[in-house]
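Handoff note, outgoing to incoming analyst
You'll be picking up this chain. Sequence as last confirmed:
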Amino acid sequence: MHSTIKYYPDDPWRLSEACFDPRNLNKYESIFALGNGYLGTRAATEESYLGEQRDTFIAGSFDKFGSEASELPNLADIFQLKILLNGQLLDLTSGTVTAYLRTLNLKTGELTREFVWTIGGAAYQFRFSRFVSLANRHLLGEKVQITPLTAAAQLKMTVGIDGQVTNRGTQHFNDDIKRLYPEHTLQLLTQTNTSQINFVITSSHRFDGEDSQMIDAKTAMLRRKLVSTYHLTLAAKQTLNFENISTIYTSRDNDCVYHDRQSLQQRGLDQAKALRDQTYDQLVHASAQAWLDQVWGPLPLVITSTDFRDQLALNFARYHLQIMTPAHDPRMNIGAKGLSGEGYKGHTFWDTDLFMLPYFIFTAPAVARSLVTYRYLTLPGARQKAAADGYTGAQYPWESAWITEGETASVWGATDIVTGKATKIWSGFIEQHITADVAFGVNEYIEATQDQQFAREMGTEIILDTGRFWASRLDWQGAKQRYEIRDVIGPDEYKEHANNNAFTNYMAHWNMSLALELVKKLPQTDPVLYARLDQQMNLHKLHEDLGTKLPLLYVPEPNQDEIIPQDDAYLSKQNIDLSKYLTLGTVDELFDHFSLDQINELQVTKQADVILLLYMFEDKFAKSVKQKNWDYYEPRTTHDSSLSRCTYTNFAADLGLDDKAYWYYQQARDIDLGPNMKSSDAGVHAASLAGIWLMTIFGFGGVRYLNGKLRVAPNLPAAWQRLDFYLWWHSQKLHFVEDANQVTVLNVTATANVSICANEQNYPVPTDQPLVIKRRGINE
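Most recent structure output, in case you need it:
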């Protein structure tokens, strides 16, 4: 399908839809999504089309329907308009459309659309604008400008609050209360079916020069819908200026004192009154200022590249990471599609802990703290899951939603192409590496921030209880006199019921080792904490179990060819040539020929697995082992996960495979931002967007957290002349500038001494002047 995306070589802050094509609705709904972390809304057009998906979500507002897994419910839509001009319904599939341009301004968070529509011999100019405020998390607004160009026009416009939207047919709301107030203010109160969360949506409609335009207004209250219809006459060249300013509040909000319906209703009305004297332009300006003050200003990140899309991709990624992350409330986390679509039901995966968390650890430590606090708040569910599976400790759910829900993964998936039966989704049962992934993210946060309060109150407990899970999870193999981890799924989800998945075993070993280290030192370093945790989990027994089992845990080592077996059976499976199936960056053709059970018996890997292991534990393996495993697994990997390519980019950069690294970078960069018009239909790829930052800073920037140290070893691609960025490390804000010759590091905060590691040396970063390290010294 022909791409309609327009880029701007001279402006890395804009992205446009250059012409209207109804086949591309879902792509733009996702990549042009608006939000602020509390609320997110897809960029459905104002007028309605077949195939659209009008989604608005509030973070953390999960609800269940029957026996289905809980999901973020699709909230009532406030952006939809029905516009008739001289009896002609606005529909861009009819008439003629010229001068069309829809643009997302990444710097300000505003979405605009303009075009000229000609039909029945008359031409009309349209301009639509909308935003979700970063200055006020409950606020969203819309502005409509319509100008008849050739003759006077009779305008009929219907706008309101449409609660008839669903989650692909599932209705999560009931018990609606609809109210109309003076000055064109509409309000809908509704409640989720199972979780019984109250929602209050209040919309105020405004017109410029309302008295002179003689507006005739009528309001209708329908089932789950409240709309006002406005009739007026526009002279030729006269512009209608209409504004729709709305707020949303819920009984789950942590900034509302009272959560009952009456109080929330009054809160919505009070806000409508308070906002009455502020125009759309003033409100969007305040939001744009918040973007500058909170996101772009404090930590600028600039790539000097021969390809302008590199900087655009980084801005695009940071924009979406901001609007998808519920930084306001530690009871919530990031969904795999953020708040941009219904894909994965809004659930949190290991994507957060290994791919998204590093971005926040090093750029927004307070947000990172909220994300790891969520993992602490979900510890009860992790303990329940472990107990239900016959283990002790904390086994984190594969999919997480609200903090009290525990495992929320679906049991059944798509129909098997061979058997015709529904496929069981085993990830929720046996993809257990997420438990160690959570501990890894928690430890990385503690080491990078030195947040000892979090460590004492939450982090240590997570690490110990996940270590306790692994100690109970190990399978003793008497004939081999060792412990193994059998019947799991590793990152390669094509291989179900694998024994000794290398990534899982190494992560478990790391998790248990860290837990053992903590158990040993806690009696001396923090006896009060030791006593508290000992009451909960019998630390003496944990010390004994870890000390006994850890030395006997099998971790797959490189074989005689220096290949680490992905699992016990992988290297004995059938080889096939994947190249003929990997067309246009998809694996669709592979699944046209093989079922998942059949792929399970092939040397085909879904995503970085052994490569991810080698990347994360880089100091444990010789470079020759890394190179041999790259050569082996790279042609066997389909990258049928958006998580994969960023790992391959970073690993290739570490190996000095510059062309390969940049090629994988471009592939990953373009998953959402590129010309594939179907790649993002269900929402953007949250972890892949974080991966753009990881590739930039960790891959090409060469920055890496390693054994409690911050390492820098730049691998700038040939297309990049300079990389300029900021990071937080040990509560100090560091400014890095890298080019072909050197790295300069400046401690901007300058309130404490820190050091960085380069060329296997520690370099103290002065507090009064920049540290300059010649590039030659780093790469020797």
